[in-house]
Amino acid sequence: MGAAGAARGEADWAGRALAAVLERVAVTAHEVGARFPLYADPRSGVWKTTARGSWTGGCWAGLLWLRALSSGAPKDRAAAARCTGRLGHWAEQDTATRGLVLWYGTAAAAGPGGDEAAAALRDRAARACLAAYEPEWGVVPWGGAFGGPRLLARADGVPGLVPLLAGAPGGGREAAHGHLTRHLALCLAEDPPRPAWQALPDGTWAAYAEPAPGWSRTAGWLLLGIADGLSHVPASGLWEAAGRLVALRTAPGAALVPPAQDGPPGAGPSPGPPDTSAAAIEAVAALKLAALARAADRGAEAGRLADRGRRILHRLTVAHLSPSGALRDGCYDASRALATSHELVWGDFFFAWGLALLTGLVAPDTM
Fold first, then answer.
1. What pTM was estimated for this model as a whole?
2. Among 32, 210, 217, 286, which is least packed, fewest CB within 10 Å?
3. Number of other CB atoms surrounding residue 365 within 10 Å
C-alpha cells in the first residue's frame, strides 16, 4: 500500500472510531442532562454523575465541543456552551486542576466563530490562577478544594494550567514557566518519576505518598505539560525532559496501555488493571509533540512521536472500544479499588481528541 493508501486507511479507522465516540457523547448527554458524567459501569453503561463536574468537568465540556465541531449543528454548539457556562464556579476554587477544568473546557470553543462567554471564562480563570501562584514555591499549589495538604505539587496539576497561566496579563508567562519547570524538576528527581511532592516549612520538598510512583497517568500528564510549555512558554530542557518520559514509556516490556499502578523497578509484571485513559492522554501528548518537533526541524523525533500516538490510538480502537463508542478498561483509582475497569469521561475525551487530531478535525495547537 502506498503512502496515500495508508493515509486513507488510517482516516477510515480513526474516522469510524471518532464517529462512534461522538455518538456515545450524544447518548450520554441525553442521559445525564445538566449533570456531569464521571465514570460508567462496564456492563450497564450507566454513568456515575456529579452536580459540579469535579476535576473532570472540563473533559465533558471538551467532548461536547468536539461533537459541535464535528457536526456543525447549532444545537450541539449551544449544548457545549451551556456546559462550559456551568464550569464558571471553578475559576475561584483552590485547586491546580483548574487547568484541566477551565482550559480543556474552553479551548475548543475558540473554533470558527468563537464563543465569547467561553473566552471570558478562560480569561477570568487565567487571572485567578495567576493570583494563586506562589513565587516562593514556584507553583500554583494543588490546593485544598479536594482535601488533603494544600501545598502539593502533583503531575495532574500541570496540564492545561500552563497555557491558562500563560494567557494571564502581568506575569502569566513567567508563572507558567515556573509552574512547569518546578513540577518537572520534582517529578523527574526520582526514577520512576514521583507524581506528588509536598512543600515543607523549611522551604524544601518531600516525597508524597499519593499517587505513588508507577501511577499510570504520570508520564502522560507531564508530557502534555511539556507540549503546552513548548507552545506557550518556550524554555530550555523541555525536549530533554520529554525524551526521558518517552523513553520510560517505550522501554522493553512497556505496554502501549499501561497498568494503572506499576510495581517498583525489577518487580516483574504488574497484576494491576490496565488504564486506557492513561494511554489516551499519552497519545494526545505524542501527537502534539510530533507537530512541535516538525516545526522545530526535529524530523526524526517527529516521526517517532507521531507513530507512537497513532499506534496507541489504533490499539485503543481495536482492543478497547465498545460497539457503542465507549472506551473501556479505564481505571479511576486502583489504590482505592474505585472504578477499576470502567469507561472514564476523561478517557473518552483524550481518546476523541487524539482521533480528532489524526482525522484533521482539530489542529495540534487548538487545545
1. 0.95
2. 210
3. 13
| Separation CA 123–CA 105 (nearest Å) | 13
Residues forming beta bridges with residue 206, ordered by sequence position = 198
For residues 306-340, b (16+ Cβ closer than 10 Å) or e, as one string?
bebbbebbbbbbeebbeeebbbbbbbbebeeeebb
Q: How many whole angstroms separate alpha carbon 269 and alpha carbon 255?
A: 10
List CB contacts of 134: < 8 A, sequence separation 6 or more. 140, 141
Rounded to whole angstroms, how far apart are CA atoms 159 and 334?
Answer: 22
- 217 φ, ψ (degrees, to nearest 5): -95, 0
Residues 6+ apart with CB under 8 A from 165: 126, 129, 130, 133, 140, 172, 173, 175, 176, 179
d(CA 36, CA 288): 27
CA torsion 233→236→240→242, rounded to 10°?
A: 0
Three-state secondary structure call for residue 219: helix
Cell numbers found for residue 178: 515556573
> Hey, is 341 helix, strand or coil?
coil
Helix (H) or strand (E) holding 300: helix 299-320
Return the biggest CA–CA distance within the chain.
62
CA atoms within 13 Å, Cβ hemisphere of 78 = 3
Place of cell 522501554: 251
